[in-house]
Specification:
It holds the Pfam family GATase. The protein has 216 residues and is of the alpha/beta class. The protein has one domain (9-213): Rossmann fold (3-Layer(aba) Sandwich), CATH 3.40.50. Helices cover 24% and strands 32% of the residues. Strands 2-1-3-4-13-12-11 form a 7-stranded mixed sheet, with helices on both faces. A hairpin with a 2-residue loop joins β12 (180-188) and β13 (191-194). The longest helix is centred in the last third of the chain and has 12 residues, at 202-213. It is globular.
Length: 216
């Protein structure tokens, strides 16, 4: 598969939670210049910041705050600088996560709660299709039957985004289904995120990352 994204500098933020090497390889395939680091200045000055995440919501939030990742993400978004979250790196962008009855505050970039999947089989592990809305930039050029790789037991399943200012555009939300529909991806100005792992999703994931790099 030939990829066409122009070379950009991307930092994979290393706060101890996430498949940083897999993300590095997948981003390098797009033609991006990729660095794994938690260095504040490098993370702030990169064209794009990718925030991976694997494990428990509370542990990821603790690690992110200890690495000042919460502050970096907030500062980047305040300046319109692109950030992309993957898996738990997406979940922590919401207001809160609820695991084993314990509620943990997230970054609150989006309202909503990350809760246990309502399905007979958990975790949701394997390939699944998504329902991307018309006009999605993240899924541009991908066929509706494209499949992506998921590994998760929690997700945002009930979400509505009330935009108070008519001049503001609501997020572009992509859904998938495992037992019950859940949020699979969000595009919201400079902040994009996926519940699935594009770095493990073959050519479809590579095209999706190329689409993101192309917006930087």
């Amino acid at each position: 598969m030939e990829l066409t994204a122009a070379s950009k500098k991307v930092v994979v933020f290393d706060y101890g939670f996430g498949n940083v090497r897999s993300a590095e390889r997948a981003l390098a395939r797009t033609g991006a210049e990729v660095e794994i680091t938690r260095d504040f200045d490098r993370a702030m000055n990169a064209d794009g910041l990718l925030v991976p995440g694997v494990g428990a919501f509370a542990a990821c939030m603790k690690g992110l705050r200890e690495a000042r990742g919460d502050w970096i993400i907030d500062r980047r978004l305040s300046g319109g600088r692109p950030v992309m979250g993957i898996c738990v790196g997406m979940q922590i962008l919401f207001a809160r996560g609820i695991e084993h009855g314990v509620e943990t505050a997230g970054l609150d970039e989006w309202p909503g709660a990350v809760e246990p999947l309502q399905a007979e089989i958990v975790p949701h592990m394997g390939w699944n299709t998504v329902e991307a809305p018309a006009g999605s930039r993240l899924f541009a050029g991908l066929e509706p039957e494209a499949r992506f790789y998921f590994v998760h037991s929690y997700a945002v399943q009930d979400w509505s985004f009330d935009v108070q200012n008519p001049a503001m555009q609501p997020p572009t939300v992509t859904w998938s289904t495992h037992g019950k529909p859940f949020v699979a991806a969000v595009e919201n100005g400079p902040l994009w995120a996926t519940q699935f792992h594009p770095e493990k999703s073959g050519d479809a994931g590579a095209q999706l990352l190329t689409n993101w790099i192309g917006t930087l």
